[in-house]
Amino acid sequence: MIEPTTCFLVTGGAGFIGSALVEALIGAGGEVTTVDKLSYAGNLANLAALDGHPRHHFIRADIADAAAMRQAFAEARPDRVFHLAAESHVDRSIDGPLAAVATNVNGTAVLLEEATRHWRSLDTAARDAFRFVHVSTDEVFGELGPEGRFDETWPYRPSSPYAATKTAADHLARAWHRTYGLPVTISIGSNTYGPRQHPEKLIPHLLWRALSGGTLPVYGRGENVRDWIHVSDHVAALLEVGERGRAGETYVVGARNERRNIDVVKALCAALDRHFPAGAPHARHIAFVADRPGHDARYALDPAKAERELGWRPTTAFESGLDATVAWYLEHRDWWAALGYDGARRGLAQAAP
Questions:
Q1: What distance in Å separates the CA atoms of residue 110 and residue 67, rounded to the nearest whole number?
Q2: Is the pTM here over 0.90, yes or no?
């Protein structure tokens, strides 16, 4: 249970998961300062429901800017930090890896340093209660074979530049805990879907393509497997990690909801047929395209530790969550239009011979 006086600082809070987390924290009575540099995936429209809210404060800043982060901590005086700001798209990291390094590695280091400075300024009780929640991704583990699930003990074997930068960020977070004592807790989440996700990601991208009258591209043969979790369940897990997670610990957050990409696309087409019958049957527009370089075959997560220690359980079935997601995007075409998304394919850069 969040105390009404709890102050939070959320980085990347104008993004997809971040904005849902900010709304949940405000709804629980918290005071929230959102930090976001409003890059292509950061969108103030995602926080429109909180316009003018007395317990929400927005700071436009880059987490790699140490002076700006020091000022943000001075203004927010947070009891909890949720660090979600990241360059999060694999394809973009293939085309431009240094942008991912700048935010995910350098930005995380700056944020950890300023969080440590703030934490040391607190009295003993506040220091003991403080948490820095570092939000990571299952991509750090790399490719999983046909059996088993990732858990907190799984070794890191990142495949993409994005995954490598998140691996580095995770190691920095653990190092700050071990070396400086900063009470860091790490959450490693699976593929998340739901409203307000940028259309470069699989589900909203295919919805954008369907509404634009285009084909529905699927990488390779669509055999890659991912573990899907609805954003509301992911946020519920983060709330528990922030309140009950132990310093120095890592919690894997997944919904035990594995799907091949092609099966996700077919389910999406079926939902579109129900909500947008003008284009039905949408499955006829599926087109297989060149695969992403280094595309991991399978991810699956074992959230037993989070369930056992935090009392958290996902509650959204994939079918109903996907159906509600499709309905949201169809009802919010103005949100789409304002993004100026061009749908360009990324991530096909090849190594030099």
A1: 10
A2: yes
